[in-house]
Design brief:
- The protein has 12 helices and 12 strands.
- The protein has 336 residues and is α/β, with parallel strands linked by helices.
- It folds into 2 domains: 199 residues, Rossmann fold (3-Layer(aba) Sandwich), CATH 3.40.50; 70 residues, no CATH class.
- Helix 4 crosses helix 5 and helix 5 packs across helix 7.
- It binds iron/sulfur cluster and magnesium ion.
- The site of magnesium ion has 3 residues, from helix 1.
Length: 336
């Protein structure tokens, strides 16, 4: 029973002043059928670059897949022609983004835009496509769908526009939906509704989802498995309950503290000091989190931690959990 998607050793580079720098560095993970995988990290950690790599929507001439494979149903889609990839995009794999206003065209009606996706991939009449778009809008919880198809994006609220984007994304019943910060621009109540909607659609359509977010709270709501990314690498991976019960990586611990709490004043939020190193200043050896890590040891800048198994389907890339680490150093961990 092969996973739906297998990303193997993906390396994606960006060209800066003639040289390529990897924004995604040897990332490997699977997405099983019907699974929701959360990808968490601050902005600049490579989450979006990773998803644009899967979709082959990297900015042309700037972003480039430089190594690895992206197998979708056993086929390496990272090497497909533009034409084949166009067939797959929107039909087998689709994507929604943070700001629906930039993905929706302001001059066309909602119905026209959904129907364009459908007619692109399926041999239907305009009338059939209209019926489908109305039923899709109903499926994503939009009231008065027959009327909304004739309206323009600016006539809807942000939450409703995101529902329209979801309707477009699922119009051809894709097997995989990539949702990049789908609720970040929305207020908290609408956020919860959209997450609930995604979960419902995932179940109804037997779809898999990659949910990209900077907010671990969002992950807790609907994900089965979580990948934590830092500076282009996966630093921790675990089933969601396991991650929340026993976070291991110091970066994950800090992300946990940064989860916004409804009953807290914004001032009391824990934030993580410092910045993700930029791709041009990435340390070539050692842990990429070392300059911000509250638990860093001198060795962290000279030894590169590898993602290793710590049991319970849990993997972490940190020297504190590295079994090959000399035993006197391990005491640091045991004392904790
Ligand atoms: Fe911190 Fe060192 Fe672990 Fe990196 S390897 S997360 S710097 S303790
Ligand atoms: Mg992003």
């Amino acid at each position: 029973n092969r996973p739906l998607l297998q990303v193997k050793n993906l390396q994606t580079g960006f060209k800066i002043e003639g040289d390529y720098y990897n924004a995604v560095e040897r990332v490997s993970f699977d997405v099983k059928r019907k699974q929701i995988v959360g990808v968490v990290g601050e902005s600049g950690c490579g989450k979006s670059v990773m998803s644009l790599s899967i979709m082959q929507l990297l900015p042309e001439g700037i972003g480039k897949i430089r190594g690895g494979e992206i197998e979708f149903e056993g086929e390496d889609i990272s090497k497909l022609s533009d034409k084949r990839m166009n067939d797959i995009r929107g039909k087998d794999i689709s994507m929604i983004f943070q700001e629906p206003m930039t993905s929706l065209n302001p001059v066309f009606t909602i119905g026209y835009q959904i129907e364009e996706v459908i007619l692109n991939h399926e041999n239907l009449t305009k009338k059939e496509a209209r019926l489908r778009s109305v039923s899709l809008l109903k499926q994503v919880g939009i009231p008065r769908a027959e009327k909304i198809v004739t309206e323009y994006p600016h006539q809807l609220s942000g939450g409703m526009r995101q529902r329209v984007m979801i309707a477009m994304a699922i119009a051809c019943q894709p097997k995989l939906l990539i949702a990049d910060e789908p609720t970040t621009a929305l207020d908290v109540t609408v956020q919860a509704q959209i997450l609930e909607l995604l979960k419902g659609i995932q179940e109804a359509n037997d779809m898999s989802i990659i949910l990209i977010t900077h907010d671990l709270g969002v992950v807790a709501e609907i994900c089965d498995e979580v990948l934590v990314m830092y500076a282009g690498k996966i630093v921790e991976r675990a089933p969601v309950e396991e991650l929340f019960a026993a976070p291991k990586h110091p970066y994950t611990e800090l992300l946990m503290k940064a989860i916004p709490k409804m009953d807290e004043e914004i001032e009391t939020l824990a934030t993580i000091e410092g910045l993700v190193p930029s791709v041009i200043n990435m340390p070539q050896v050692g842990c990429r989190f070392a300059n911000r890590c509250p638990k860093a040891m001198p060795e962290c800048t000279t030894v590169t931690p590898q993602l290793g198994d710590v049991g319970h389907e849990h993997e972490v890339a940190c020297l504190l959990f590295d079994e090959s680490w000399p035993s006197d150093k391990k005491k640091v961990r045991d004392r904790e």
